[in-house]
Specification:
253 residues, alpha/beta, Rossmann fold, 2 domains, eight-stranded mixed β-sheet, 8 strands
Length: 253
């Protein structure tokens, strides 16, 4: 009898423990959803296919390709910022696709690149004989750098938007071309960490500062908590980002 009672007691403990874990996990997901940034109306509009750009959902994200023209190399892989839905970067991807590039935006587990560092593998596997660059915004840029540090042979360069390479993603001793773009009015980027992280990049890294640009306008999802009001419009910041990327890419070819 006592053995049966002990067994039932442990069954109850296990059941309550499992229930508690389920409730905690569900609570975490609900919280993350509540603090995740969604794409603006402009981003949603840019996320549709038309006569210039074809937008396709694929295994690990989204592909933007130019219509009716040969693809300009390199292909571009983009990792979104932390807790930002990938569709929020569709204006940037569309602009680059209109310039002729094939652009991939990775879709991260719970919108955190820390859980999807190797998403780029499936994009590169689509065109293994073609050239690629990888980059990202904020947290996405840091994990794009970590990916690049482990896959240098697959890439020609790495770009950072309001982001930097930490020690785990150090590119200092690689032959990769590096571009760093920041906004002068960014209220989210930790400037001290950003300055210190320059030690993890090659000496010939290209640095571009967008006057009046902030953190959130590297995407299109509205004001981010802790950010500063930008002194320029989102469209202007996007334009300057695309120009900087194209100048950098031209040097790779």
């Amino acid at each position: 009898m006592k053995t049966a009672q002990r067994t039932n007691k442990w069954k109850k403990i296990i059941m309550w423990t499992i229930l508690a874990i389920v409730i905690i996990v569900a609570g975490v997901f609900v919280y993350l959803q509540s603090v995740t940034y969604s794409p603006s109306e402009r981003a949603e509009a840019a996320f549709t296919s038309d006569g210039q750009v074809n937008v396709t959902e694929i295994k690990d994200g989204y592909r933007f390709e130019p219509v009716g023209t040969e693809v300009t190399k390199p292909n571009i892989i983009f990792y979104p910022g932390g807790l930002v839905e990938p569709e929020s970067y569709s204006p940037l991807a569309r602009e680059l696709a209109e310039e002729g590039h094939r652009v991939y935006i990775a879709k991260m587990p719970i919108n955190l690149a820390i859980f999807g560092q190797n998403k780029a593998d499936s994009f590169i596997e689509e065109h293994p004989d073609e050239s690629f660059v990888i980059g990202g915004h904020s947290l996405g840029g840091s994990f794009a750098s970590r990916y690049a540090a482990e896959r240098t042979e697959k890439l020609k360069g790495v770009f950072f938007l309001a982001s930097y390479a930490d020690e785990g993603g150090s590119l200092k001793n690689t032959d990769l071309s590096i571009l760093q773009i920041t906004g002068s009015d960014d209220g989210v980027l930790n400037r001290e960490d950003w300055k210190n992280s320059k030690a993890n990049l090659p000496e010939d890294t290209t640095y571009v500062s967008i006057e009046g640009g902030n953190h959130g306008q590297f995407g299109s999802y509205g004001m981010q908590k802790g950010d500063n009001q930008p002194a320029i419009r989102e469209e202007k910041q996007l334009e300057e980002v695309v120009v900087a990327l194209e100048k950098w890419i031209d040097k790779l070819n």
